Amino acid sequence: MNRDFLNIVAELNKAKKILVVGHIMPDGDDVSSVLSATLGLRKIGKEVLAGIDWRIPWYFQEFEEVNEILSYEKIMEANFNPDIVLILDASSPDRVGRFQEFFDNRTVLVVDHHGTNTLFGTYNWVDTKYGSTAQMVLRINTELGVEYDERLATLNLMGIATDTGFFRYSNADEIVFSDATKLVSLGGKMYLVSRLFENKRVEQFKLLSTMIENMKMELDGQIVYSYLSKEDYERNNCNEDDSGGFVGELRSIRGIELAIFLSEYEKGEVHVSFRSRDWFDCSRLAVFLGGGGHPRAAGCTLKGNLNVIVEEVIREAKNMFVSQRESRLLIK
Ligand code: 5GP
Ligand code: MN
Ligand code: MN
């Protein structure tokens, strides 16, 4: 057994009060991991609060348990003094937002599957072998002797499904399928997970059409990019939660290797998502721009004027695309 894994399980066993924290701009894997760990630890008698320092996208309300995840303000109001902090699916301290304040003089446990993780915890179980952090939480819960019911199994399954693009991406390997099988046998329901995204507002289709209007190609159609400005969101009566799958739509275009989607979620604050199809290492580009992620899916957040950021990001993407393509040809 992995030593970091065992240390983390031992610390969780020892602790009475635990703060479970996810990352800003939470995705399905993050919400799933935080809820699965929180409900699991409560089942074995721990006092647990869960926090994410960001608004939780509305579609997660499909799962009523999501209301167990509290804002930073609510956790402060509760005057919670945890023995330890468990951080899930976050690759660097900035990704947990203001919950970093809880790190001082406490044991910090980091559980994550990002290769770009900066190992900022007291104990770090970081393994890129896993398609999702939710699978790592499944292992922790199992080791802790947590009994799964249908709800917990479904919530845990949600993270595996969402981080593998519903079992379609290159990270959907044997461990992913066997973990999903295990959760389904424990009562997990895929149709409930699918409802998260088969529940669209009409406004989201209008927003998609704006995104398509803004779309441009580079390098003979190997790179595609698009963006949405704050005004684009407002005009369509939407916010950034509503553009969740857009970068995936861009990557699905035939012949594309790299898809880039820039989202001005606040005036002057832009989140950039990178997705690649076969070989481009998005995480290298994202790290270069101050973010992180995986080889096929990565991102970063930049401040400034949207048009300027679009221009800069596309310039850097083209440069890195050409250099990665050349070194690939050399290796071949
Ligand atoms: P997305 O494009 O869906 O926001 O993120 C894709 C992947 O990149 C996810 O694994 C996410 O955790 C990571 N990622 C996205 N944005 C950032 C960022 O600003 N910083 C870091 N470190 N990772 C990010
Ligand atoms: Mn995540
Ligand atoms: Mn993840």
TrEMBL record:
Chain segments annotated as coiled-coil in the UniProt record: none
Database matches in SUPFAM superfamilies: DHH phosphoesterases (SSF64182)
Ranges of residues in domain DHHA1: 221-318
The DDH domain, residue ranges: 17-160
MF term (GO), any: nucleic acid binding
Record-linked Pfam families: DHH, DHHA1
Protein name: Phosphoesterase RecJ domain protein
Protein species of origin: Fervidobacterium nodosum (strain ATCC 35602 / DSM 5306 / Rt17-B1)
